[in-house]
Amino acid sequence: MPMKDSKNDVHFILSWFSNVFSRPSFRLFSTFIVGFIQLGKEAHTSSMVQSLAQSYLQRSLSSFTRFLGKSPWTPQGLFQIALQRFFQVLRIKARSILFLIVDDTINEKTGKKIPGCAWYKDHAQQMANVFGHQWVLGAVLYKDFLLPLTARLYHPKGIRGCGPFQTKITMVKRMIQSLQLPVPCKVYLLADSWYWAKALVQTCQGRGYHMISQLKSNSVILLQGQRTKVTQMQANTSAYRQVSLCLYGKNKTLKIAKFIGTIKGIGKVALVIVKEKRTKVRYLVCTNIHLPALEVIKYYAKRWKIEQMIKDLKQCLGFGHYQVRNLQAIQHHAALALLSYSLLVFFAILAVSKDKGTTSYMSIRCRAFHVRKHILIENIKITLRTMRIQFKQNILDAYLEKLCP
């Protein structure tokens, strides 16, 4: 994937946020975003601040720490700018299908004095007890491009120093209520079974959105006026049909059945039962009863995108590697990590728009590598010119290849 104008593209994308900051603060903001991409997993707060202060702006450490912990900028305003640009560069039209995806993740911590830390059951580690922070993340998906919207810090009741208690359902409700789309779209909220709640579905219905989620095996719906467990409905073999489709990059053969039922306080819903060999039966629920069963399955499979986003944020952009005790600094660190992910998303969009033959599918790891390689080479060239050191071209190329394998 050729990226000759990568430096100009990075500057162009960063310029969208220049009006939010003063000139010195914007330089710090830009330096943090580039630092997250360049340092990758090593982008924990202390090492990144020291590296940036010495190599980029020759600023004192206190200017970087003040930007994180005391600067008055708000992440929500930056995410709104990113969302508006997302619609512009992709030319999203009214009534287009858009997916709002939510999920949560845990960042393990060891510091006992970090605000908001508590013990959680981590599903990724087979329900092991993990001490740290739990974040509720939201992202918007259009075609193959996923744009992070927000990261909200959740904490259980009784935890001091991080504001009033809010349930994760309440956090997602407020996320939906604060969502301002530049043009009206057909929005589907995608979430796992932990977020299927009457209050959240009603919030979606109030905004004209639909929700697709998974039901737990002990769920009950009204079928022809009778309370029926979803596990009892899978025994109706005559309702199933066999289909073949591509899910999660693999060709799969499934048996599916669709039922129309009612849930009190929500209204009519479509229940899609999915059977696959050597896999537990899944019960998908959708508030759009007219959506075909196959589309319900395909739409819900798009929820996997946020799982990949969380993995990339942690492994490539230092999302969980903050080492501060200031709550605002923690929140700003998370927001900057998400915005660095957004920069890489826009970077890919611009590459596709310049070259129609370029594939849009490229991992965040590869995108970060290309940006990182260009920035590293640029900095090395500047340093060599400053030191007035001359190398033969073949020696310099070999040196750069070792830095950028």
Overview of the structural elements:
The protein has 405 residues and is an alpha+beta fold. The longest helix is centred in the last third of the chain and has 28 residues, at 327-354. It contains 13 helices and twelve strands. The chain has a domain at 6-74 and 326-387. It is globular. A hairpin with a 2-residue loop joins strand 11 (267-276) and strand 12. The protein starts with 5 loop residues before the first helix and ends with a helix. Mean pLDDT is 83; it is low at 379-405.
Shape: globular
Q: Which spans of ≥5 residues are poorly predicted at pLDDT below 50?
A: 379-405
Write down how many β-strands occur, each being a DSSP E stretch of 2 or more residues.
Answer: 12
Estimated helix fraction:
40-55%
What do the pLDDT scores average to?
83
Structural class assignment: alpha+beta
Kindly provide the radius of gyration, computed on alpha-carbon positions and rounded to a whole number of angstroms.
Answer: 24 Å
Q: Counting H and I runs of at least 4 residues, what is the number of helices? A: 13
Largest sheet: 10 strands, mixed
Order of helices and strands: HHHHHEEEEHEHEEEHEEEEHHHHH
Percentage beta strand: 15-25%
CA distance, first residue to last residue: 16 Å
